[in-house]
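Collaborator request, handled under Task 6.
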Amino acid sequence: MKTDFDYPKKDLIGPVVFRPDFNNFTKINANQAWSLFFTAGQDDKSLGQQAELGNFFTNVLIAVAVAGALWPIFLSNVG
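Structure tokens returned to the collaborator:
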């Protein structure tokens, strides 16, 4: 997707995903993805540059999904 927006950086107000220097279909890491999620697309570097925090949030999400799936299986006959 090619955007025709060529706003100066000082006048650009809006999500970072619509900026021309970000929207080049490059891969982003988990830290950038979680940062975009928590800031509603406003900043992709708010969690810093270390990948550990992004991996932590990803693992927590996976653990919650697995626990939610296993909860009814193990506790269906209790009661």
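The cover message to the collaborator said: "The chain has one domain: 16-75. The chain has two helices and no strands. Please let us know whether this matches your experimental observations."
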